[in-house]
Amino acid sequence: METIDSRKQDNNGLPPDQISPKEVVNRFIVFKNQVVRSWKLIAIFMVLGGVIGFIIDLNQDTRPTYTAYITFNLGGGSSTGAMGDLGGLASMFGLGGGAPEANIFTGENFLYYVVSRPIITRSLLKEVDTLGIANDTVHKDLMINYYIQHGGIRDDEWEEDDTLRNFRFVRGKDPKTFTRIENKALDGVFNRIKGETSIAQLDRKSSFLTLRTGQHAEHLAKVWVETLLETVQEDYTQKQNKKTNEMLKLMDRRLDSLRVVLGRNDASLARYIDQNQQIVVAEGQLQQTKLTRNSSFLQQMYYSTVQSVDNLKLSLIKEAPLFTIVEPVALPLFKESHQPFAMKTGLVLGLMLGLIAIFLKVTYQSIMQS
């Protein structure tokens, strides 16, 4: 038994599945010596890692990114009462069954609507102040020209296209009449700025929405989110009040027509009375009665139309959606700097790979010797 137990122990009196501290120190010394002898191999790995990292740093965008966001709440404008409000609120959270809501201003539809092409295009073609409140003067320019100048698209996507790099949009031109180069420039800006803009629900337990963007220029980021939200509010209001506006235009035209007809009838009645003050013939009295009756009828219609116009104008105010800005854009914006770090990372990775290679070499030699 003693002979068998002695075979299960090494020279240091330890079981074969354990390593003594002396063995650990010896192995560390061997590894250290091998590292010293193989310093050229480590240097090669570090140089390769540093060169690769340096190339990556050259192609990396080091411009800072300014993040602007604006938090708002969309409310009001509901003509369906409390149940409609509750239904819209439930759909925002994905509650309720049945088919998806067809209204583009409800739930997920509204999130797609805000960053849709018509809204972004309309926002890009609006005039904005490109100098900001810090300047005493005001310089107006199209939002798309301001973005082309400071958004970085000329140095990235249009770096090799001199035509687009020097292109500017003309104010007041209808997008339907854009030329090929104008449509190409608009498509490029739209695809880039849509990827830089996002809207999301602030929290599942609230109805607040956050519109966010990241730009290389601080004032550009602020102006863009404010302009986009303003455009959304304008377009939203127009679409929500479209039927009421059409009815209002119809009633305005009817009111103008009644005003003209009533004026002509009153003038005819006044002339007839002046010309026939001593009339005694029944036929003449019948004509006067007819003109008087027409005047009374037209006055009733006129007053009724005036009241309808007033009611429609009140309906426009009542149905108009209410955009409440909960948290406006606050300067200075959050700045994210992009410092080059790939070269440093490459040196560290090269050092680690070199040490791993030496460790594998030492292990292989140890296995072959034993």
Number of domains: 3
| Biggest sheet record | 5 strands, antiparallel
Q: Helix tally?
A: 13
Instruction: Compute the separation of the termini in Å.
Output: 27 Å
What's the overall geometry?
elongated
Following the backbone from N to C, one meets helices and strands in this order, namely HHHEHHHEEHHHEEHHHEEH
Query: How much strand?
Result: 5-15%
What's the helical proportion of residues?
Answer: 55-70%
State the main characteristics:
Bact_polysacc_biosynth/exp, five-stranded antiparallel beta sheet, 370 residues, 7 strands, disordered N terminus, alpha+beta, 3 domains, 60% helix, two-stranded antiparallel sheet, transmembrane helix
Helix-strand layout with pairing:
Elements lengths: L1 H6 L13 H17 L1 H21 L5 E11 L5 H12 L15 H7 L2 H8 L2 E3 L10 E3 H8 L11 H4 L14 H16 L1 E5 L6 E8 L2 H23 L1 H34 L6 H38 L2 E6 L6 E3 L5 H28 L1
Antiparallel strand pairs: 1-5, 1-6, 1-7, 2-3, 4-5
Concise summary:
With 370 residues, the chain is α+β, with helices and mostly antiparallel strands.
Task: Provide structural commentary.
The protein is of the alpha+beta class and 370 residues long. It folds into 3 domains: 2-60 and 340-369, no CATH class; 65-240 and 326-336; 244-319. Helices cover 60% and strands 11% of the residues. The chain is built from 13 helices and 7 strands. The strands form 2 sheets. Strands 1, 4, 5, 6 and 7 form a 5-stranded antiparallel sheet that branches. It has a two-stranded antiparallel ribbon with strand order 2-3. Strand 4 (197-201) and strand 5 (208-215) form a beta hairpin. The longest helix is centred in the C-terminal third of the chain and has 38 residues, at 282-319. The model is unreliable at 1-11 and 78-100 (pLDDT under 50).
